TrEMBL record:
It is a multi-pass membrane protein. This is Transport permease protein. Residues 25-250 form the ABC transmembrane type-2 domain. Belongs to the ABC-2 integral membrane protein family. It comes from Streptomyces atroolivaceus. It is found in: Cell membrane. Keywords: Antibiotic resistance, Cell membrane, Membrane, Transmembrane, Transmembrane helix, Transport. Its main location: membrane. The chain crosses the membrane at residues 31-49, 61-81, 102-126, 138-161, 168-187, 229-247. It holds the Pfam family ABC2_membrane. InterPro entries: ABC-2_transporter_component, ABC2_TM, ABC2_TM_bact-type, ABC_2_transport.
Length: 252
């Protein structure tokens, strides 16, 4: 019986990331979902509010972070589950490859995709669609990237609890939708019922939206922005650790 490798290895992590990226290169539909769909959705939103550009400015920055989180969650959860159901994961873990190496490799590979995704979506929003941002667009890019990494981490985590791709998709209403409703996109969080406001205070998407709004309304970097970035990054790291701890070799 094989055991997990005792510690994270940069070589094993990079090899895992390279394998995932090679697989993505041969899957144009997944690449389109990751890179093109967020851009299309942002563009569609801009012209939905064609007669009221102010509304697009008010919610566009928030959605610029939410769309990458959702797409990365979906793709990562399904891709990881497919590895397990096909037996690939069990064969990989029979080698000198630990769960931490595997999770870190997946995070690195999808993190590289997240960089490209965030660059495209941010560039389209700010320089093509005219999203009015008071702060630096590069700060928008930073928050969008962290949101995409958080989506990757959540996808890796929930894939351990699904036995089919359909079940993986079903986790979206349980994991993503409550955060979407409570993150402050539809109404300020301080106007919610006190219980819901308290719940929203512990959901990472709330800080993702707050971080985007800080860039939207402030010329400089605020203390709240630092808090939001640290919470989103810390949540992603925590969920990645949980994903490594709960990763199963095979589907029963």
């Amino acid at each position: 019986m094989s055991t997990d490798a005792p510690a994270l290895s940069p070589a094993r992590t990079l090899a895992t990331a390279g394998r995932v990226l090679r697989q993505l290169r041969h899957d144009p539909r997944t690449v389109a979902l990751l890179l093109i769909v967020p851009v299309v959705m942002i563009t569609l939103l801009r012209y939905v509010f064609d007669a009221d550009a102010g509304t697009f400015d008010a919610i566009g920055a928030s959605l610029l972070g939410i769309f990458p989180l959702i797409t990365m969650f979906l793709v990562t959860s399904i891709a990881t589950l497919r590895e397990r159901t096909s037996g690939t994961l069990e064969r990989l873990l029979a080698m000198p490859l630990g769960k931490g190496d595997l999770i870190a490799g997946y995070a690195l590979a999808f993190g590289a995709v997240a960089v490209a995704q965030s660059l495209l979506a941010t560039a389209m929003s700010v320089w093509v669609l005219g999203l009015d941002v008071v702060g630096s667009p590069w700060l928008l890019l930073l928050v969008a990237l962290l949101d995409a990494l958080l989506g990757t981490a959540l996808g890796l985590f929930v894939s351990a609890f699904a036995n089919s791709e359909f079940q993986a998709v079903q986790f979206m209403p349980a994991v993503i939708f409550p955060q979407l409703l409570l993150c402050g996109l539809f109404t300020p969080r301080d106007r919610m019922h006190p219980v819901l406001e308290t719940v929203s205070d512990v959901l990472p998407m709330s800080y993702a939206v707050d971080g985007m709004n800080q860039v939207l309304t402030h010329t400089g970097i605020t203390a709240d922005f630092y808090r939001d970035v640290l919470v989103v990054a810390g949540s992603a790291l925590l969920v990645l650790c949980l994903g490594a701890a709960t990763l199963r070799r095979r589907t029963t």
